[in-house]
């Protein structure tokens, strides 16, 4: 009996098929419809208004909008001072969601999954770490900085 309870408790933490599909569609929308990509498929800009129009506003999307405006208005973006991809990601997004969450999502392959259009795999990864965060906001942040930092690391 106690093993059954443990199994059930563990399963209750897993996202449902519906949650995975919904999150996958959000990630797909962000990557395919609300972003501008470079020749390598890396996101170089995101249309936050388009995301807000479809999914409503959130404090995470407001922060992303401010960050994008700051980057566009400065000659030397503060987020991209390091040459290494992970240090770029950590400096850019860590304040918003926490270093551990962002590092885990990126090391888990979120951006690679998204670029390969493996949206359900990307969704599972986001859902694993998105406790207490806005899924749309977290997905947009990670997608934007994944692209910006990948493009910067390859420059």
Write a brief structural summary.
The chain has 155 residues and is mainly alpha-helical.
Q: What do these coordinates show?
A:
The chain is mainly alpha-helical. 70% of the residues lie in helices and 5% in strands. The protein contains 9 helices and 2 strands, in the order ααββααααααα. The protein has helices spanning 2-12, 17-32, 48-55, 59-73, 85-97, 99-107, 110-115, 119-129, 135-153, and strands at 35-37, 43-46. Strands 1-2 form a two-stranded antiparallel ribbon. Helix 2 crosses helix 8 and helix 4 (59-73) packs parallel to helix 9. The longest helix is centred in the last third of the chain and has 19 residues, at 135-153.
Helix content: 55-70%
Q: In percent, how much strand structure appears in the residues?
A: under 5%
Structural class: mainly alpha
Uncertain segments of ≥5 residues (pLDDT<50)? 1-11, 75-83
Distance between the termini: 57 Å
